[in-house]
Structures are given as C-alpha cells and as structure tokens.
Amino acid sequence: PRPRTGRWKKKKKDMTAQFESQKAKVDAMPEVKEMLKMQEQMKSAVKEYDSSVPRMKAQLPKMKEVRDKKAKKDKFVAQNKARREKKERDEKAKVKAAAEKKAKDEKARKEKKAIQEKADAEKKKIAGGGASWSPLTGLF
C-alpha cells in the first residue's frame, strides 16, 4: 500500500499559509518595521567596520612612523631654536657689557682728568702766587 501523503501535504500547505499571514501581520507592525530597519543599519555598520579596520591596522605602523619622525624633527627644531636664542642673548650680553665697560672707563678717565686739572691748577696757584726767581733780573 502507498502511504497517504496528500493529507500531510494539505496540512503543510495550510500551516505555511497561516504562518505567512501571521508573518505579514507582524511585519506590518511599526515596531517590527523599526527593528528591521535597525537590523539593516547594524549590518551595514558591521560591514563598514569589517572593511575599514584591516586597512587601518595595516596603515598603523606607517602612521606611527610618521608621528615619530615629526616628533623627532620638532625636537630638533626646538633645540636649534633654543641654541640660537641663547647665542643671541650671549651676544647682546657681550655688547652690553662692552658698552658698560667703555662708559665706566670713560667716566674714570674723566674723573682722573678732572683730578689732574685740579692738581695742575693748585700747582699754578702755588707757583704763580709765591716768589719765583727770574732769570732776566736774577731776583726773586
């Protein structure tokens, strides 16, 4: 005897139809629509992540190398700048010290000259005011 599959096929068809109608009702609900939309967004985000991350990881060593190279250059430039500024400060200090020394020497020279002139004036006063011997007359 042949098995009776017709009854089972009909039952399967009925159940499938019921399931599809229930699914259509559920899919029509706004909450479910929102969930399906979110699921699609999540899938696209995961896909974007999966495609981007390996590329970024591959670029990471080069990015680190560029960062380190820039940091090294910046440090070198800063050292050169500091060295140049120190040299300029030292030059200014030398020029200022030389100018101060020159002014001090000039002041000391003027003071010495004033003292010498005062001493010469005293000598003249003493020499001119007292008796002196004259070679013409032979007298004091």
Explain what you see.
- The protein is mostly helical and 140 residues long.
- The protein contains two helices and no strands.
- The chain has helices at residues 6-28, 30-129.
- It is rod-shaped, with a radius of gyration of 55 Å.
- The mean pLDDT is 89.
Mean pLDDT: 89
Distance from N terminus to C terminus (CA atoms, Å) equals 183 Å
Number of strands: 0
Strand-residue proportion: under 5%
Low-confidence residue ranges: none
The radius of gyration computed from the alpha-carbon positions, rounded to a whole number of angstroms, is 55 Å
Shape: rod-shaped
Structural class: mainly alpha
Would you kindly provide a brief summary of this structure?
Helices cover 88% and strands 0% of the residues. It has 140 residues and is mainly α.
Which key features would you list for this structure?
140 residues, mainly alpha, rod-shaped
Q: Which helices and strands occur, and which strands form pairs?
A:
Blueprint: H1 6-28, H2 30-129
